[in-house]
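Q: Structure for this?
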Amino acid sequence: MVTKPPRLADVANAAGVSTATASMALNGTGGSRIGADTRRRVRATATELGYRPNTIARGLRTRRTQMIGFVGDDVATTPFAGQMIRGAHDAARRAGILLLMVDTSGDPSETGEAIAALQERQIDGILLATMYHQVIDVPKAIGSTPAVLLDARSADDSVSSVVPDERGGTLGALAELAAAGHRRIGHLTTAEDVEARRIRLATWREHVAAYGLDPGELLAEAPQAKTRGGYETAVRLLSRPERPSAIFCFNDRMAMGVYRAAAELELSIPDDLSVVSYDNQELIAPELDPGLTSAALPHFEMGSWAVKELLRKLAEPDAEPVQHLMPCPIARRDSVAPA
Amino acid sequence: MVTKPPRLADVANAAGVSTATASMALNGTGGSRIGADTRRRVRATATELGYRPNTIARGLRTRRTQMIGFVGDDVATTPFAGQMIRGAHDAARRAGILLLMVDTSGDPSETGEAIAALQERQIDGILLATMYHQVIDVPKAIGSTPAVLLDARSADDSVSSVVPDERGGTLGALAELAAAGHRRIGHLTTAEDVEARRIRLATWREHVAAYGLDPGELLAEAPQAKTRGGYETAVRLLSRPERPSAIFCFNDRMAMGVYRAAAELELSIPDDLSVVSYDNQELIAPELDPGLTSAALPHFEMGSWAVKELLRKLAEPDAEPVQHLMPCPIARRDSVAPA
DNA sequence: CATGCGGAGTTAATCGATTAACTAAATTTA
DNA sequence: TAAATTTAGTTAATCGATTAACTCCGCATG
C-alpha cells in the first residue's frame, strides 16, 4: 500500500497547531512568536512523521527553488570537465542546492532554448560553462537571471566569471625548468586559435626574450593539439642542429607525442630531455613513464568558486561582477632533470 | 527596468478569455471545448507576450515536474561516465525533461540523503547510476519513486536495470582474434573482485576450454587494472616458454602496459603480438600506436535506454521491471594481425 | 482603572498554474 | 414545439507551502 508522504498540514494537525505555526516552528522564522516548547513539539512531530517539505510548493511561494542551472557546451563529455561539475556540485550541495544540468552539444542556437528550459523551472541562477577557456558574448536569453561564467569570460565583463590563470601556470611550468638550470626551452604549440594557446605562447615568448634567445629556433607548431601532432612536431624540433634541452608542451596529449618521439630518437626523458606540459590530465600525465610534470587546470576549484560567487550574487543582488583568475598549481613528477 | 515575465493570467487578459480557457488552448486539452479561432488567438497572444509557463506552479498542481533525478556514485568524475550522463540527458531532453544531478562521492550513507533531496523537489523518477558494473541493493529511501538502475543490477531484480553485455563483448573481442587465426590467446586480468572481471574471465575460460588449452599457461593476474600492472604482468606472461600469439586484456589501461612491455621485449604489435581489450576508452584506445582494438562499453546507449525505460514506467506504472543487457560493439583498429 | 504592549498564536491571502463542476446559447432530435 | 444534446466557454477549488494581518490574553504603567 502506498501511503502519501505527510504534508505540513498533517504535521500541524498532529501537533495541534495551525499550519502557520508549524511552518514558523520548522523554519525558525517569525521571531518570538513561537514558544520554545511549541517549537520542540512541532519539530518532534515532524521527525516522527518523517515530514519532508515539498520544495515545489515552497518555491512557488518564496520564488526560490534551491536549484541552479548548469549549462555546458559539450561539457559532460569532455574528460576534465567532470571535475568542474563536481566542484560546482559540491559547493552547491553544501548550501542545500541542487544542479539542473543542460548540455548544448556545442550548438549555440541550443543555448537559448536550454536557458529558457531552466528559467521555466524557476532556477535561482545559472552557471554557464564552456568546454575550454574562451571569451564569449553572454546569451541575451539570460535576461536578468543571475549568472556566472565558468572557464569563459564575457566580452564586456558584465557578468562574473572564472578562468584558469594560464599566464601564472605557464610561468610556474617554465620556472620548474629554469630551476633545473634549463635555458634553451622549446615550445610545442598548436595552430588552433584558442585563448589558452595565445596566453601560453605569449608567456613563453616573454621567457625567451628575457634570455635573448631566438624564438624561431625553439618554437614548433602542430596543426592540432593531439598526440600525433605532438609526435611529428617534436621529431622536427629535436632534429634541428641545436636542439633545446627542455620542452614546454601546449598540453599533455602533445607531451605524449613528445615521449614517443624521444623514444624513437633514443633520447631519454628526463636525462637527455626535460618535459613540462599543461592540463595535468589524469589519464595521461601520471600514467606516462616517467610521470609528466604538468600545470593543472583547476576545474574543480573553478566549479566551486562559480557556485559561491552565484550565491553571493543571490544574497547581494547589487554586488559588482568579479573576474577571477584561478591559479594553476604545478603537479611535479619525474620528467624534469638538471640541464 | 526589470519587467516581470507574463503569467498565464496576463495572456488570458490580453486575449480576453479566462485563465481556464487560456490553459486549455495552450495545452490542447479540454477536447472540443475551445473553438479553433479562440485557440489561435490565445496562442498568438502567448507568443507575442513571450509567455513561458511556470513549471513550478504547474508541477504543484499536476504532480509532474518534468525533472528526473540522476544519482551517481562518483559518476561525474570518472572519465567514461560522462557518456552515460550524456545519453540520459539527450533522451530526457527530447522528452522535454531535465536532469537533476546528485553525486554521492561513493559514500553509501549519502545516497539516502541524495534521494531524499531529490524527492523533496518532486522529481518524476530516479536514475541510479554506479561507476562500474555491479550488483547492489536498491536503497530503501527510493520508496515508491519510479527508478531505473544504470550500470548496476539489483540483487532481487525488483527494479529495471541496464548493464553492458560483458559476455557478448568478450566473445566479440575473442572472435576478432580467432578470425585472424589465433588459438593461443592469453588473458590479462585484475585481482579486483568486480562483476566485469568475473564475466570476462569466465567467458575467456570457455574459449580456452573449447580449444583444449591450459588456462594456467595463458592467464596472468595483476593486483590492479592499471598501466603498471598491465606492464608487469605482460612482461611475465610474454617471457614464458610458449608465449601466446595474442592477448585479451581486461581493460585499455592494462593494454597500455602491454604495449610498453612489447616495446621492451622487442615484440612488434600487431606483427609479433596481437592485442584486444575492453572499455574502448577514448583517451587511450585510439591514441595508442597502433590503434587498439577494443570492446566498447556502451555508456551512452545505457544512459538513453535508462531514461526511455523510466518514461515507460511513468506512462504504465504497472509494467514489469526489465533487466537489459546492452551490446558492447567492437571498435576495430590496428592491433590485430593474422597469426 | 483604562491603556498600551509584548507574547503566542490563528486566519486568510497568495504564489501560478490545472481541472472539476457549472452555465448559457445554439442546434438537433423526438 | 419541448426536450435533449452539443458547443464554447466561465467560476471556483485545488496543489502545499509562506507570510501579512489580525486576535486574544496577561501584565506593567501612568
